[in-house]
Write a structure and sequence with these properties.
By secondary structure, this protein is α+β, with helices and mostly antiparallel strands. It has 4 helices and 3 strands; from the N terminus they run αββαααβ. The chain is globular, with a radius of gyration of 12 Å.
């Protein structure tokens, strides 16, 4: 089985889709391009009256393939992130 970072590196960056799951709202999972991670997670947080600079850091870590850091940040934001199947 290939690692998530190798899949992301091997695929054309424009073609990679990520699966985001909002852990605070059951059943809320979307597939988005890297460019849409920020707006999606920010919108979910805004519904709760929250804004966090960690969202931008999450996007940066995902784009850089720094999955350990991305998972840690996502955990703080109560979301899950992965390369979509």
């Amino acid at each position: 089985m290939r690692s998530l970072s190798s899949l992301a590196r091997r695929a054309d960056r424009g073609a990679v889709t990520y699966e985001l799951t909002d852990r605070l709202h059951t059943g809320r999972t979307v597939h988005v391009a890297a460019d849409d991670i920020n707006s999606t997670v920010s919108a979910w947080l805004a519904e709760l009256g929250v804004h966090s600079p960690l969202v931008e850091e999450l996007v940066r870590m995902v784009r850089d393939g720094e999955w350990a850091a991305a998972y840690a940040i996502a955990d703080r934001l109560s979301v899950d992130v992965a390369v979509a199947p």
